[in-house]
Design brief:
single chain, 498 residues, Aldehyde Dehydrogenase, Chain A, domain 2, 21 strands, 37% helix, binds nicotinamide-adenine-dinucleotide, Aldehyde dehydrogenase family protein, Ald_DH_C, Ald_DH_N, oxidoreductase
């Protein structure tokens, strides 16, 4: 029996921010939904309501898009010097940093992720704003070669209103990955956080009152995806949708964008292979593989949900991996307990979905190497679960589970494991463990993934490297210089001089 770590109810944080109905953030003010409708956001530890949040419908989305549209042409935003834009982004970073603890607590309360991890995510938001603050003064256009009778150049201009739609596993961070480049390039934003995790994005927008950012540059509408999200992404005055979420919703976003040919970037699901060759540092590989599918209770797009190990070391590695998972099993518990390494899953529907996949694994003939022990007190906890005995074609090895579950499979040589790693509709990331440089580089070149990590696990970029997916893991990139193309439109200008 696993006994989750608990915290007495009166010792759990209860920020003042949770009091009262949380309104929408439109044009720099908090407003209720016009319909008066609200919904409850739920604490996954207690499964009790945490806060009441306004449910935006079409009229509210229209108001938010109109506010963002006005801000887009407001001289206080549209006409400022690039360096002033840099200073505004730095102010935003400062305000997040100054309120980091409150934002991290709100995220831990809403998604159940350990406070140590939400603190890291909020700190990363600060880094992302500071990194993007450097872009405004470096957003060069081009001059083009032309006859002496003409002058030709290319301007790089913002798109307009960006609809930013995010998932629940890193709510503010996923939003900041969109807000920071949008602002750095002169766009304005309407954010739609996940209905499971609205609070940190709402609070962030409220905190912007402490900066010089003009009202309406960042707006937030909260509510259900099929209502609030749907209106936002199909709005004709929204020039671009920047989306993070499931591949199924991402495909719907792309199809809907055809109505007015919106620009679209999609950060979607994954089925990341961790590939361990016999010559690797097995102990380190085991420790990072455990982290890769246990951290955040495996609710990560880059979770190491498939582990391929070279046959000669399979038994030895499995034993090391099970050992490396032990601290996560022992650290299952309340996100506010200092010993917690894995919190509950974010909400009941998702908990049932993950357990459904574990049931499917055993029905399909898989063996649970770990994850069979019952958990005291029920709740939404799922123990780290390692599955053997399934092949890469099984549903459990093909579909994104988004929980602390990984399938361990064997392989003999490089060609075989590259084929296995690539044999999925996803292509977000891959991790390769070997001391042989040639093997490492060959694998990196041939794996169909937006990011490949050699002898390490995932590393989220605050700036220099583009992040995004191949195949059905996404479209376009966040970060890197590539992100600038995703938030600007080139304009060719021809000046007749003669
Ligand atoms: P989801 O697709 O259910 O929801 C994502 C967002 O879309 C939410 O805000 C939701 O309200 C909204 N939405 C749902 N239906 C909509 C509709 N019809 N119109 C407009 N918006 C709609 O995804 P989720 O469960 O919140 O997030 C988990 C998924 O996100 C996983 O697949 C994970 O891999 C992926 N993810 C990807 C990355 C990445 O960078 N590639 C990062 C984190 C999460």
């Amino acid at each position: 029996m696993i006994e989750p770590l608990t915290v007495p109810a009166d010792a759990r944080p209860r920020p003042d921010y949770l009091t009262g109905t949380k309104g929408l953030q439109i044009g720099g003010i908090e407003v209720p939904a016009r319909s008066g409708r609200t919904f409850a956001t739920v604490d996954p530890v207690t499964e009790q309501p945490l806060a009441t949040v306004s449910a935006a419908d079409a009229a509210d989305v229209d108001a938010a898009v109109a506010a963002a549209r006005r801000a887009f042409t407001d001289p206080a935003w549209a006409d400022i010097a690039p360096y002033q834009r840099t200073l505004l982004l730095l102010q935003v970073a400062d305000v997040v940093e100054a309120n980091a603890e409150e934002l991290a607590v709100l995220e831990s309360l809403e998604m159940g992720c350990p406070l140590t991890q939400t603190r890291w995510m909020i700190h990363h938001c600060v880094e992302v704003f500071r990194n993007h603050a450097g872009w405004p003064t470096k957003l060069y256009g081009q001059t083009a070669p032309s006859a002496s009778s003409q002058f030709q150049y290319v301007l790089r201009q913002p798109l307009g209103v960006v609809g930013a739609i995010a998932g629940w596993n890193g709510p503010l961070l996923q939003m900041v990955y969109k807000i920071a480049p949008a602002l750095a390039t002169g766009n304005t934003v309407v954010c739609k956080p996940s209905e499971h995790t609205s609070l940190s994005t709402l609070r962030f927008a409220e905190l912007l009152a402490g900066t010089d950012l003009p009202a309406g540059v960042v707006n937030v509408v909260t509510g259900d995806g099929k209502v609030t999200g749907q209106h936002l992404m199909s709005h004709d005055d929204v020039a671009k949708v920047a989306f993070t979420g499931s591949t199924a919703t991402g495909k719907h976003v792309l199809a809907t964008s055809a109505s007015n040919l919106k620009r679209v970037t999609l950060e979607l699901g994954g089925k990341t292979p961790y590939i361990v060759f016999a010559d690797a540092d097995l102990e380190k590989a085991a420790s990072i593989c455990a982290l890769a599918f246990c951290a955040g209770s495996g609710q990560a797009c880059v979770a190491g949900s498939r582990i391929f190990v070279q046959e000669p070391v399979r038994d030895e590695f499995t034993e090391l991996l099970v050992g490396a998972m032990a601290p996560y099993r022992a650290g299952l518990g309340d996100p506010f307990h200092p010993g917690t390494r894995m919190g509950p899953l974010a909400f009941r529907g998702h908990y049932e979905r993950v357990n459904g996949y574990i049931g499917l694994a055993t029905e399909a003939g898989g063996t649970l190497v770990t994850g069979t022990e019952p958990i005291a007190g029920g709740g939404l906890y799922v123990a780290p679960t390692l599955i053997e005995g399934l092949d890469n074609k099984s549903r459990v090895a093909q579909e994104e589970i988004f929980g602390p579950v990984s399938v361990l499979m064997g392989f003999r040589e490089l060609d075989e494991v590259v084929d296995l790693g690539n044999d999925t509709v996803f292509g977000l990331a891959a991790s390769v463990w070997t001391r042989d440089l040639a093997t490492a580089h060959r694998a990196a070149a041939r794996l169909d993934a937006g990011s490949v990590w050699i002898n390490r696990g995932s590393q989220m970029s605050a700036g220099p490297l583009p992040f995004g997916g191949h195949k059905q893991s996404g479209l376009g990139r966040e970060h890197g210089t590539q992100v600038l193309d995703a938030y600007t439109e080139p304009k060719s200008v021809i000046v007749e001089l003669s």
